[in-house]
Amino acid sequence: MEPTKVQSEGGLNVTLTIRLLMHGKEVGSIIGKKGETVKKMREESSARINISEGNCPERIVTITGPTDAIFKAFAMIAYKFEEDIINSMSNSQATSKPPVTLRLVVPASQCGSLIGKGGSKIKEMRESTGAQVQVAGDMLPNSTERAVTISGTPDAIIQCVKQICVVMLESPPKGATIPYRPKPAAAPVIFSGAQVRADPLAAPSTANLSLLLQHQPLPTYTIQGQYAIPHPDLTKLHQLAMQQTPFTSLGQTTPAFPGVDASSQASTHELTIPNDLIGCIIGRQGTKINEIRQMSGAQIKIANAMEGSSDRQITITGTPANISLAQYLINAR
Questions:
Q1: Which strands sit side by side in the sheet containing 58-66, from one edge to the other?
Q2: With CB atoms counted within 10 Å of each terminal CB, which end of the chain scores lower, N or C?
Q3: Hey, is 133 helix, strand or coil?
Q4: Side-chain half-sphere exposure of 28, counting CA atoms within 13 A
Q5: What pLDDT does residue 13 have?
Q6: Who's near 208: CB < 8 A, 6+ residues apart?
Q7: What was the pLDDT predicted at 18?
């Protein structure tokens, strides 16, 4: 540990958590045979390194510790990835070495500070470190986080991560952050009987499924992507359910059996938004408002502009939980 170095970083030796998004193959490389690589990284960096569970194509790697421990862990990861690139090149015809790439997951409320006014901060990072830095325009599914991709040589990446840590410490996230959780691969969530086994964030509206689950006996439903797909045992209920639909995708709250489940009674809430802000909420060709609809599971209607009024009315319909999430996402925009 070089104390002088920490001082030169502006005395920033405080505890911080950085989340990385990795593909399964990258995670395998970090874990190593029998977990030896990650064990060595934990010991040598003295950072806490946690890897999310699950057979997901993507996994979250969380690194927590004092800033100097985090930089050490990052250095070890970046060099490991470079080693993997060199090894894969020795088996291929490629002549130019591709850069090392890491994806950070950052609360959207901090991305503005990373980009800076008119992109000034991100430009300064690129120029001073030689790394490529890109902040994703859209939030990761069902979360309020964005991916920040850094690529370059291991040294450029380490310098860049240091600068990102400084920005994140200087401007902490605003409001609550809904963390990104990768969805499992084709391993579906099974619904059978009256048990709903689902990740509450992955399925914003299990309400409309619980309506189906009140009717016994039940076929098993599988959630794949965003749709509930009945299993092949075609019982009467399944046929009934299919007649009752179009079966709504998860995230819309049109019950397949209206009025069965009192706990998810839909209610309506109205918001007034100034005209000049409505554009940020709707987004280009409605992308943002659709994202909010999908994440919150609420129905959202925006009234047309009234003559002589500087405000627009937004009507949100759904369960109380759907409505509060929609309100939070609208305010976050």
A1: 48-51, 58-66, 15-23, 100-107, 145-152, 132-135
A2: N
A3: strand
A4: 7
A5: 62
A6: 248, 250, 252, 253, 254, 255, 256, 264
A7: 94
Report how far apart the first and last C-alpha atoms of the chain are (Å, whole number).
41
Burial degree of 52 (CB within 10 A; 0-12, 13-18, 19+): middle
Taking CB atoms within 8 Å and a gap of at least 24, the contacts of 5-13 are 5/68, 6/67, 6/68, 9/67, 9/162, 9/166, 10/166, 12/67, 12/165, 12/166, 12/169, 13/66, 13/67, 13/68
Q: Are 158 and 125 in contact (CB under 8 A)?
A: no
Band the pLDDT of 281: cuts 50, 70, 90: confident
Q: What are the tokens at 158?
A: 């380490």
- pLDDT exceeds 70 at position 237: no
Q: What is the pLDDT averaged over residues 285-312?
A: 84
Question: If DSSP codes are grouped into helix, strand and coil, which group holds residue 20?
Answer: strand
CA distances from 245 to 61, 88, 157, 195, 208 (A): 40, 50, 51, 22, 12
**Closest C-alpha among 252, 300, 251 to residue 278:** 300
CA angle 19, 59, 45 (to 5 degrees): 50
